[in-house]
Amino acid sequence: MDLLPIFQSIEESGIGRAVRESVWAFAVIESIHLIALTMMGGAALLVDLRLLNLGLKQRPTAELAADASRFFNAGLIVLIISGYGLFASEAVKCYYSSAFTVKISTLVVATIFAYAFRNRVARAAEGHFGNGTRAMVAITSMALWFVVAAAGRWIGFSG
Amino acid sequence: MSLLPFCEWLASTSGSIALHESLFMYPLVESVHVLTLCLFVGMTMVLDLRLTGLALKKVPVGEVVERTQPWMFLGFAVMVVSGVLLFYAIPVRSYQNIFFRLKVVFLIIAGVNALMFHTGIFKTVSTWGRELQPPSRARMAGIASLVLWAGVIVTGRMIAYNWFDCDKPQPGWVQVVTGCSYEQR
Questions:
Q1: Is B184 domain-assigned?
Q2: pTM of the predicted model, to two decimals?
């Protein structure tokens, strides 16, 4: 199935047109996207560093994870909404952009990983998972989000 | 005193030209700059949210500072190095860019705010660090920091736009603020 018609209709949608035709909209949404990235990335790093036994060591990981999750969730929601606005304004360009393909596929994997695996390990009782498992989860999480963000930045540089 | 001649000289150096014209180096440096936001501003936000009483309420403030500071410093170092490189690649345009100038102003105020916090209310953190809601001076410092760093991010992102660049007709106030009017190239 070819997805091009879907991308085209998104580009021609009200949101797509509005963002594309406004002078300021793209820049403003992009700034919101970056601030949300900071919030989500910071919350993710806080827990990932704790899983690596770096950072706030004196606190149970579960407590930190519970505290950070509000900001992680809020950041992710704002990122997805603002990201859709940016995407809609240039959906066809994104269709042909390999950076975009990499970003979205990794985003799906990273999100599933975060909620299905990382949460379980981060919120488990202290000592339930060994240091090796915790480190693997943390490094995988950081690597996945790094690829999402880096590939996202690359959409702007390509084509 | 104008920094324009210095920026022009900087732009003429071979390193600046190489970075400016490179296919991958400039995008790579810029990506590093953007992604390190998560580490530097991300960790700063964690502390600010604790100071405003919005997150990590059960963790003493002193402990949050102690544990996030190494990462903050690391992130800040990467930010400064990559940021200087980005400026080095495009010195003249950045210097005369209204958003770049605003960003520098935000950076200075954010720095002063951090300095005032660390030399002021933070000195007595052992007496209030365990409170769920820190004293108002600490909360103010946290709120100011959140707003100022958001300002740095937004103005930083806007540097990419040429709406107020000197090479097109601009209203008088823009010419003054960007230095276009009295500093001809």
A1: no
A2: 0.84
Among A29, A35, A52, A158, which would you mutate to test the B interface (most chain B Cβ atoms within 10 Å of its Cβ)? A35
CB A51 within 8 A of CB A121: yes
User: How far apart are the CA of A43 and the nearest CA of chain B, in angstroms?
Assistant: 7
Q: Is residue B183 part of a domain?
A: no
Q: Quote the ipTM score.
A: 0.72
Q: What is the b/e burial string over B48-60, where b = at least 16 CB atoms within 10 angstroms of the residue's CB?
A: bbbbbebbbeebb
Q: Could you report how far apart the first and last alpha carbons of chain B are, in Å?
A: 15
pLDDT digits (tens, 9 = 90+) for A17-65: 999 999 999 999 999 999 999 999 999 999 999 999 887 778 889 999 9
- Given a cut of 60, whether residue B185 has pLDDT beyond it is no
Q: What is the pLDDT of residues B102-114, one digit of tens each?
A: 999 999 999 999 9
Query: Rounded CA gap, B69 and B107, in Å?
Result: 18
Please report the DSSP string for B29-44 in residue order.
HHHHHHHHHHHHHHHH
Shortest CA gap B132–chain A (Å): 14
List, for residues B53-74, the tens digit of each pLDDT value.
999 998 999 999 998 999 999 9
Question: Can you tell me the mean pLDDT for B112-117?
Answer: 96
Q: Which residues in chain A (58-87) have CB-CB distances under 8 A to chain B?
A: 58-59, 63-64, 67-68, 70-71
**In chain A, what are the domain boundaries?**
4-157
Q: What is the dihedral of CA B26, B28, B30, B33, to 10 degrees?
A: -140
Task: For residue B62, give its domain range.
Answer: 4-178
Residues 6 or more apart from A104 whose CB is under 8 A from it?
none
Give yes or no for a contact between A13 and A88, defined as CB atoms under 8 angstroms apart.
yes
Number of domains in chain B: 1
Specify the DSSP class assigned to residue B169. Answer: -
Q: Which of B35, B178, B78, B60 is nearest to B122 (CA)?
A: B60
